[in-house]
Design brief:
Elements (H helix, E strand, L loop, with lengths): L9 E2 L9 H15 L3 H16 L3 E3 L12 E8 L8 E6 L11 H4 L10 H10 L2 E7 L7 E2 L8 E5 L9 E6 L9 H13 L7 H10 E2 L2 E6 L5 H14 L4 E6 L2 H20 L16
Parallel strand pairs: 1-6, 3-7
Antiparallel strand pairs: 2-8, 3-4, 5-10, 5-11, 7-8, 9-10
């Protein structure tokens, strides 16, 4: 694994199988037939796709695309989570979908990779040993890792031009960032984070050790033994992860001073968002991992 310019990482995806285009067309038409009965849900679904385009997670197929080159299409569906604080509708992509038993899905053709995630039991036991608890979540963790441009054709999917039409035209998109529904995605995320944290072995050994043992996929469950260390720890953890392109949010703690700090930061972000003018051309930060 090597790091490119700045904090960018890239990951290669290798696949040689059926492209499943026809399967995705069939499933998309069925999806549209069901969802169009609920106009609000259909708009929410369309907004998820548009938001991912605007944030650089996905992209419309380039006009100069080589249609003869091997490609693969992922089918998808929506999952509504009423218990979520943030996104209620989540679009789930199927890496294991295939048209028939004689073909192989993309997940069957990708190596799972090593399990680099600590045992959940160990994380819980260590977490409960801290009198001061600190928890957080890596925001859109998988989408912070960029896919090699040459391999994006293997992570294509279908959506519509104008969803309000009775029979909208199908458009092709492809992922620029890592997809959660792939077999190796957890290993790719974990290895990327570990690669980034390895740079802090000498500079911040205590914080690096805590992150190594307290991160479960994209969830942080750690803590400290003295309240005075809490704010300093959260600042260092946030700073280290941010340098790798990972933003931590949903902070919480049983420490009053940290909760007050979290509240102040959230209010400051809200005020900044309200004051800042919209910038449609704002570029997003890319994070890439290379074998």
């Amino acid at each position: 694994m090597s790091q490119l310019d700045g904090d960018e990482f890239v990951k290669n995806i290798h696949f040689d199988g059926s492209n499943e285009y026809e399967l995705c067309v069939t499933r998309l038409r069925r999806l549209h037939s069901r969802v169009k009965k609920n106009k609000e849900l259909l708009r929410d679904y369309d907004n998820v796709i548009k938001d991912q385009v605007n944030s650089g997670i996905i992209e419309a197929l380039p006009e100069n695309d080589d249609n003869q080159a091997p490609s693969h299409f992922l089918s998808h569906h929506g999952v509504i989570r009423t218990d979520r604080e943030t996104t209620k509708l989540r679009v789930v992509f199927h890496g294991s979908a295939k048209s028939d038993k004689s073909t192989a899905s993309i997940n069957e053709c990708l190596e799972k990779g090593p399990n680099l995630v600590p045992h959940l039991f160990d994380i819980v036991v260590k977490f409960r040993s801290y009198p001061i608890a600190v928890v957080a979540d890596i925001e859109k963790a998988f989408h912070q890792i960029q896919i090699n441009p040459d391999d994006r054709r293997m992570l294509r999917f279908l959506w519509f031009d104008e969803v309000e039409k009775d029979c909208p035209e199908i458009k092709q998109f492809q992922f620029r960032r890592l997809v959660f529904g792939l077999t190796p995605s957890p290993a790719i995320l974990a290895s990327t984070v570990k690669h980034h944290l390895s740079k802090y072995e000498e500079k911040e050994p205590a914080v690096k050790s805590l992150l190594d043992s307290s991160l479960y996929v994209d969830d942080l469950a750690g803590g400290v033994f003295h309240e005075k260390e809490t704010v300093d720890l959260s600042d260092k953890v946030q700073g280290i992860m941010k340098e790798g392109g990972f933003s931590l949010h949903k902070w919480n703690s049983n420490c009053q001073s940290l909760r007050e700090r979290i509240k102040q930061d959230e209010e400051s972000k809200t005020e900044s968002t309200m004051e800042a003018p919209p910038n449609e051309n704002e570029s997003t930060q890319n994070h890439e991992e290379e074998d």
